[in-house]
Amino acid sequence: MLAGIRVTYEAIIAGGTLVFIALVLQVMLGSRVIKLKGRLHWRVHRYLGYALVVLGAGHAIAALALLGKI
Ligand code: HEM
User: Fold this and answer.
1) Which of 41, 39, 40 is nearest to 31 (CA)?
2) pTM more than 0.70
3) CA pair distance 60, 21, nearest whole angstrom
4) Which residues touch 49 (CB under 8 Å, ≥6 apart)?
5) Confidence grade of residue 4 (pLDDT, cut at 50, 70, 90)
6) Pocket, ligand 1, Cβ cutoff 6 A
7) Is 62 exposed, middle or buried (CB count within 10 Å of its CB: 0-12, 13-18, 19+)?
8) At what angle do helices 39-66 and 9-30 cross, to 10 degrees?
9) Probe ligand 1: pick from 24, 27, 36, 45, max atoms within 8 Å of CB?
10) What spacing in Å lies between the alpha carbon of 60 and ligand 1's midpoint?
11) d(Cα 46, Cα 33) in Å, to the nearest integer?
């Protein structure tokens, strides 16, 4: 249980897959495999970067709750 939500193994796998897809997109933006026009490019990269930090931390906390460590 985390904040009243029951964390399941399937939810951790689904969440981790989504975080991984966002990370791949971020690396593709950073290395310009995906190109956006002008300032929008770095704006998307910056906010996706911050979102990744929050998503990654949330994924880790949920996984710790699943393992009964917190
Ligand atoms: C091969 C991978 C990557 C490359 C080549 C790359 C490249 C860059 C470059 C060139 C900038 C400067 C943009 C500017 O001039 O404003 C930048 C900014 C940034 N990158 Fe990446 N990046 C990569 C992966 C990542 C990843 C994995 C994350 C986060 C998890 C990330 C987060 C950020 C953030 C938050 C900024 C904004 C920093 C700021 O403007 O103060 N990047 N990146």
Assistant:
1) 41
2) yes
3) 16
4) 26
5) confident
6) 23, 26-27, 30-31, 42, 45-46, 49-50, 52
7) buried
8) 160
9) 45
10) 22
11) 16
* Atom 1, ligand 1: residue with shortest CA distance: 27
Per-residue pLDDT reduced to its tens digit, 13-45 = 999 999 999 999 999 999 999 999 999 999 999
- Name the 3-class secondary structure at 17: helix
Confidence bin at 48 (pLDDT 50/70/90): very high
Q: Where are the alpha helices (DSSP H) in 1-70?
A: 9-30, 39-66
Atom of ligand 1 nearest to the CA of 23: 27
Q: How far apart, in Å, do the first and last CA atoms of the chain sit?
A: 9
